[in-house]
């Protein structure tokens, strides 16, 4: 019996609660309308400042694409690698991104004077900016033939000629004076 009374009491109060909820919702709606009106009026009164052009160097990595530089077949480093171990690469604003007044445009097919970047083709005339990348500078005039270095190491390694050839005179001298490092690594006779 007690269960029934509580159920009846709950049902009786439920109608009163719904009424209070409706009144609260109406008050909230009127506050929202007033706040919206204030915001709209504030936007009409305040003069909006013109949007400044975004500098291309400030773009997020997903907003631009940089071309992978060609590789030098002799040094296996990017063409244009400088003595300070950096190379400049051309970067393009992606399709629909504007920076420094340049709108990024690309096409899915190649055209004259275009380069590929992330499966899209960009015109070389639309380079937005250049970015510095790291590389390992190798002077093409001082490249050693590895076959010659190997032959010198096999036949004259205990005299240090391989080290002299590769440009390490101190190691070559140490190897020569110790006859290849006290014959370390030389085959033993039994």
Automatic annotation (TrEMBL):
Keywords: Glycoprotein, Membrane, Signal, Transmembrane, Transmembrane helix
The keyword Hydrolase is annotated on this UniProt entry: no
UniProt-listed InterPro entries: TM2 (IPR007829), TM2D1-3-like (IPR050932)
Presence of the UniProt keyword Signal in the record: yes
A cellular component annotation (GO) from this entry: membrane
Superkingdom of source: Eukaryota
Domain TM2: 148-185
Annotated membrane topology: Multi-pass membrane protein
Coiled-coil spans in chain: none
Annotated Pfam families: TM2
Subcellular location: Membrane
Family: Belongs to the TM2 family.
Protein name according to UniProt: Gp39
